[in-house]
Write a structure and sequence with these properties.
By secondary structure, this protein is mainly α. The chain has 5 helices and no strands. Helix 1 packs antiparallel against helix 5 and helix 2 runs antiparallel to helix 3. The N and C termini lie far apart (50 Å).
Length: 163
């Protein structure tokens, strides 16, 4: 994983993913009630890291869509989850002394991480031209579907019966 090969949006997404992971763990450790909805952001942070670093780690593997579109989906869901988490902690501000500081810090870090992932996904999506691309389009290669324009099948081996 060469961090220097990432563009600014990808680095921002990795920072947000790291914050979401750290926030969920701190919130879990700091409270008997757990991290709540931050576990969704935790799982999405792992997905964001995979989306960003998979092309470097395995160049022959193709993502099921453009990197910007996938980052937008994962980051958008994380951002919505973070906003819902923000609504959840508004009542907890009054009970801050009961829960302790570590839980609150973890929740806030996780929320900020989810929002940063959403913003980075949006920026990368816009940098790719703002065209949503998921799945393989026509002519994307063998197995692209009927009429996909893939490579023709290989000829039968010599001496094989013709059909």
């Amino acid at each position: 994983m060469d961090f220097s090969k990432l563009n600014g949006n990808e680095r921002l997404a990795v920072y947000g993913a790291a914050a979401s992971i750290v926030g969920a763990i701190l919130a879990q450790i700091g409270s008997i009630y757990g991290a709540g909805g931050l576990w969704l952001s935790f799982i999405l942070a792992l997905a964001m890291i995979a989306i960003v670093f998979l092309p470097q780690l395995s160049p022959q593997t193709t993502l099921p869509g453009s990197k910007g579109s996938l980052m937008l989906i994962v980051g958008g869901i994380a951002a919505v989850g973070a906003l819902l988490g923000l609504l959840a902690i508004l009542g907890a501000l009054a009970l801050f002394a009961l829960y302790g500081g570590l839980w609150f810090v973890g929740i806030v870090i996780g929320i900020v991480g989810g929002l940063v992932m959403g913003w980075a996904g949006w920026q990368e999506f816009q940098a790719e031209g703002g065209k949503f691309q998921i799945g393989s389009g026509p002519g994307a290669g063998p197995g692209a579907g009927p009429g996909g324009g893939g490579a023709p099948p290989p000829p039968p081996p010599p001496g094989a019966p013709s059909t």
